[in-house]
Write a structure and sequence with these properties.
alpha+beta, 60s Ribosomal Protein L30, Chain: A, two-stranded antiparallel ribbon, four-stranded mixed β-sheet, single chain, 26% helix
Length: 170
């Protein structure tokens, strides 16, 4: 197997009259599962790509104007797993934009899901995936990501059901 650096690919393309812009697409290579699925098998990122690593993000309260002491917030104040996942992805989308990235640039997610008391302490994997599909594999963002999803005993507070770390590259 021959391995070429990004610079070697650009030089080879230039030699044959191809546009170096084509090589820019090779900065991030998404490796689909076989058969194709909701998430990727993995991602290759070429040296020199601009990377952004976001810390774990938690949901915002459904009603931010509601005045409740942080210690008194409940799951109802943040919503179920699906609702919290939508809130987290909305927050991630804004954080990415503030750094010049977009959801299409996300390559890896680590999703921590706490057990939902309404489900006997089991994580709502279906609810999380339902929200995930609103942000990945869509008309607005046809890309998907490499992802790990794990159930955890608890998150930063008892009202949180979802925390997501994101890595973006371009």
């Amino acid at each position: 197997m021959i391995k070429l650096s990004c610079a070697a690919i650009v030089a080879t393309l230039a030699l044959f009259g191809a546009s170096p812009a084509i090589a820019a697409d090779a900065v991030v290579v998404r490796h689909a599962n076989t058969p194709p699925g909701l998430i990727l098998q993995g991602v290759t990122v070429a040296a020199g790509a601009k990377m952004l690593y976001l810390s774990g993000q938690l949901a915002a309260p459904i009603d931010p104007a509601k005045k409740i002491a942080p210690a008194d917030l409940t799951i109802a104040d943040f919503g179920d797993t699906r609702t919290q996942t939508i809130s987290v992805f909305t927050k991630i989308k804004a954080l990415l934009a503030a750094q010049g990235f977009a959801m299409q640039d996300v390559i890896k997610l680590t999703v921590f899901v706490a057990g939902d008391p309404k489900l006997g302490g089991k994580m709502d994997f279906a609810g999380m995936n339902d929200a995930f599909k609103m942000f990945f594999g869509t008309a607005e963002n046809p890309n998907t990501v490499a992802r790990s999803t794990v159930q955890v005993a608890a998150l930063a507070g008892p009202a949180f059901l979802v925390e997501i770390e994101a890595t973006a590259a371009k």
